[in-house]
Amino acid sequence: DAMVIQNPRYQVTQFGKPVTLSCSQTLNHNVMYWYQQKSSQAPKLLFHYYDKDFNNEADTPDNFQSRRPNTSFCFLDIRSPGLGDAAMYLCATSRDRGRPNTEAFFGQGTRLTVV
Amino acid sequence: GQNIDQPTEMTATEGAIVQINCTYQTSGFNGLFWYQQHAGEAPTFLSYNVLDGLEEKGRFSSFLSRSKGYSYLLLKELQMKDSASYLCAVMDSNYQLIWGAGTKLIIKP
After folding, report:
1. Cis omega before residue A18 (within 30°)?
2. Strand order across the A64-67 sheet
């Protein structure tokens, strides 16, 4: 059974039109992450939540926002998508942070296309 | 700066053995992870090393040398389903994961 679920798997949005990607988890993990991954590149961490504590990476554009209304759900909002935002967006969870051997569990990703 | 280096692409034959290398320079070290990622799919966890030496898990083994900033993933008895990208990631002193760009492994019959 899937433990980290992302919807939709594929999303097409218009240039400049706000879009929201969703992630849910059944693992009851404290930490949820959003990564952006472009073709043949390393995943790039956008931000993460430790419980309700939001942590933004310094180089994450303001165009990207996130919400975590409860333990199970986390959303990625792209306020005005540009062509450069087309990528795979990966949601991941981990039981904790700040500890070694904290394995991350990934969802299947949402591939975003901007037209 | 922090850096993870892996070969971009490797090719191997079904049934053979392949070694994928990873070198790293990071601010501190709290372990090294290997993930497998099939095209268009999410990464899945393969292994974790924090002490020097070889960790074996079935057909896959992972080796770490902290003094050399070096790891490798060894895949034995290659199967076609092993065709994927293999990502090396290091957990730094802030417990943040620093990711490599991945090595695309192509398996030929």
Report:
1. no
2. A4-7, A19-25, A73-78, A64-67
A90 contact partners, CB below 8 Å, separation of at least 6? A6, A33, A34, A35, A36, A37, A43, A106, A107, A109, B42, B43
Cα dist. A94→A31, A99, A100 in Å? Answer: 5, 10, 11
Q: Which amino acid is at A109?
A: G
Over the stretch A49-78, which tens digit does the pLDDT of each residue have? 999 999 998 899 999 999 999 999 999 999
**Residue B3, token pair as written in the block:** 């850096």
Cα(B79)–Cα(B72) distance, integer angstroms: 19
Residue in A96, A109, A94 with CA at minimum distance from that of residue A9 = A109
Q: What is the dihedral of CA A41, B100, B45, B83, to 10 degrees?
A: 60
Residues of B with CB under 8 A from a CB of A: 4, 8, 30-31, 33, 40-45, 48, 50, 87, 91, 95-97, 99-102, 104
In this structure, is the dihedral angle defined by the CA atoms of residues A66, A67, A73 and A75, taken in order, positive or negative?
negative
Give the pLDDT confidence of B37-52 residue by residue, as tens digits: 998 888 999 999 999 9
CA distance B78 to chain A (A): 22
| 8 A C-beta contact, residue B75 and residue B36 | no
Do B95 and A90 count as a contact with CB atoms less than 8 A apart? no
